[in-house]
Structure formats: C-alpha cells, structure tokens
Amino acid sequence: MDIHEYQAKEILARFGVPVPRGGLAYSPEQAGYRARELGGSAWVVKAQVHSGGRGAAGGVKLCRDEHEIAAFAATLFGKQLVTRQTDANGKGVYRLWVEAASDIAQELYLGFVLDRKSERIMIVASAQGGIDIEELAETNPDSLVRMTIDPATGLAEFQARELAFRLGLKGGQIAQMVTILRACYRAYRDLDAVMVEVNPLVVKGNGDLVALDAKMSFDTNAMFRQAAVAELRDRSQEDPRESTAGDHGLAYVGLTGDIGCIINGAGLAMATMDMIHLAGGEPANFLDIGGGASPERVVRAFQTVLADRNVGVVLVNIFAGINRCDWVADGVVTAYRQLELTLPVVVRLAGTNVEAGRRIIEQSGLPLISVGTLADAAAAAVAARPALAA
Ligand code: GDP
Ligand code: MN
What we know:
37% of the residues lie in helices and 26% in strands. The chain is α+β, with helices and mostly antiparallel strands. It has three domains: 1-19 and 103-236, D-amino Acid Aminotransferase, Chain A, domain 1; 21-101, ATP-grasp fold, A domain (Dna Ligase, domain 1, 2-Layer Sandwich); 239-384, Rossmann fold (3-Layer(aba) Sandwich), CATH 3.40.50. Strands 7, 8, 9, 10, 11 and 12 form a six-stranded antiparallel beta sheet that branches. Helix 5 (157-166) packs across helix 6 (172-190) and helix 9 crosses helix 13. The radius of gyration is 26 Å and the shape is elongated. 40% of the residues are buried. Bound molecules: guanosine-5'-diphosphate (GDP) and manganese (II) ion (MN). Guanosine-5'-diphosphate binds at residues 44, 46, 52-55, 60, 62, 101-102, 104, 107, 130, 199-200, 212-213.
C-alpha cells in the first residue's frame, strides 16, 4: 500500500527526519492561503499522487507569489497526471502540498528496501540524487552505496556514520545523517513498511540536511496491525478494478491483452499466464477467486473480469482442492445466463467433483468450451479470439 508524499513526510518527521514546512490544499484558493500561512517569498507546489517523476511530468513547480500558486494549482486539480511511473491514464490530482522552498546545494538519494535475497533491510544511497534510482543505477552505478541491516540488531550508530562518510558528508552533517538514517530505519521497521525513499535528500545552502521528497510503501498484509497507516489509504490513486475486486475478497490484476482469466490461486494464475503466452495470446487480466468459491462469487468474478472492455474471451481455470468443481461450474452457467454473455468462455476444471462439474458445463446447452488440460485451455482461448474478430 502506497501513501502520499505529505503523509510520508509527516510520518518521517515524527521519527526525527527534518522536513520542510508545508500545508495541504484541496483548492487553488487554499493553496494560496497555505503560502501566506507559511510566509517567505518562494514556495514549491506539488501534486500529491502515488507516483514519483512528478517534477518531470509538470506536477511540481517553484512559485514566487500567490497568483502564480493559484494559477498553477488550477491547472493541476482534477487533472490526470501522467508520469513515467504511471500508466497512460495517470493518477488523479485531488490534493496539493504547498511547501516553503528550500535552497539546494546538493541532492542525495536515500532508499530503504527489503532485500529478499539476504533477508535484510537494505539501504541504498548516493551522493548524486534527484533522479530516479533506476536511472541512477544505469547512468551512475558507481555512485551507489549499499548496506544491509540485520533486523535482529538494527541499524547501529557506527554503520550509519560509515554510510554518511561514504557519501562524502562532513562535520555536523554526519550527525544529522545518522539521525535521519536511524529515524527512517525505525519508521520502516515499526510501521511494517516495505520501502522508504527520500529523493532528493538535500544539503541546503547553509549545509543542513532536509528530506525534500519522501515516499513510503507498506506491507498490505500487515495493515491489520497498523490501523493508523491503513487509514491513509487513498482509493482515488488505485486502479478501480483492483480495489473493487479487493472489496469482494477477490484479487484482481489488470493486464493489457484480450483474454480474461478466472483462476484459483496465484501459482496457477502465473502458470496460466505462461501457457497463454506460449500459445501466442495475451491475458487481459487475471482474477484469483481463492478457495471455497460459491456460484455467487464466480458470477461476481465474471462481472469484474468483463468490466475490462478489451476482454474478448474468458478462460476459467480451476484446480479444485478446497473449491468444488460443481460449484464453480454452477457459477459459470449462472453467470453466462444472468449476464447474458455472448463471448466465448473456455472452462478447464480439475480436482474435487470434477465429473459433476464437467457434466454441468456440458449439459447446460450453452456454448461453453470444456477442456481437460491447462495447455488445451490456453490453446482454446487463443483460438477463440480470431473467430471473434472476424
Ligand atoms: P518527484 O519528481 O515526484 O520525485 O518530486 P520531487 O519532490 O523529488 O521534486 C522534483 C524536483 O523538484 C526535485 O528533485 C528538485 O530538484 C525540485 N524541487 C522540489 N522542491 C524544491 C525546493 O524546495 N526548492 C528547489 N529549488 N527545488 C525543489
Ligand atoms: Mn523525488
């Protein structure tokens, strides 16, 4: 789960990271008012969307007076901001962050990520920040400093000092960097984060360090014990198809092809994606109906998958353990009739009550394509497409 920059800054500040002063705005007028409240003579107006790369996309602007702020804010509100990290639809701008501008002497990069290979939290930093880590890794890999932290011992002061030295920081900046590193680490660990990124972390004209941008991402599976973080969820930033499916206990992933997939279990979903590719097709999405799928759930799954206009064929692939093939088959038949479907539906059932399930499909009198194996299912789904286009 992602949160907004201003929320990440609020959290990190609570742990001891210095951040610029700022205020949130829901309208151009409010943006101007926030600047007056903050005082000073320069402000940065920043679109709050769940994406980086806002600066390059026109979502961040340094403004000199209230009129400039209001005018820029007016162009942003309600807009879909497309960045190099979003899809072509972009993310809706409904909140702006107005910040007292900082004068920048140097931009550094600082990130905390989960390193699955070493089973540790990894700090990645660079004295040449301000650009994306992906770009940094390509254009200036030697500038990257990495350090893995054993969660059993945490980030020791000597490690934080060593990192600060390796970034070339001097004098009082070392102590400031140690404070920032340890604060970020504690925020990461205490709040079940999977990513904390400060890019840029800047050295100001006066030599002080401040987090100019902040990004945090959290482990969705831990949100049951992080109520305060869970509340920061902003549905306007999510793919509506995925959040609606989630509300019904279905895991949905949107893709770009034309074969809609209803599957049980993430592993089988992966295998099915591979088989579709192998057969020369492209999945439009996949929906994991999980275990114990009732006919009602299967109908809901069809509705969700068919909400994607690109779907031309539906492939149902169920390996029933906890599930029952006859229930799923009932669901498929009900969905076909109730939703008045006309598109081809390929059904592959295996496992518990498979004979009963196949009988329901075959005796339904509906043009359902019943197949026995995963390979046949993928081939049948791909073959059913041109018939549709013709
Ligand atoms: P991102 O593009 O989504 O990562 O947004 P950032 O918050 O990182 O802002 C993009 C860029 O805008 C930064 O890398 C800075 O170069 C610039 N910027 C942001 N805030 C300030 C500021 O207070 N003063 C100045 N001079 N530049 C800023
Ligand atoms: Mn940034």
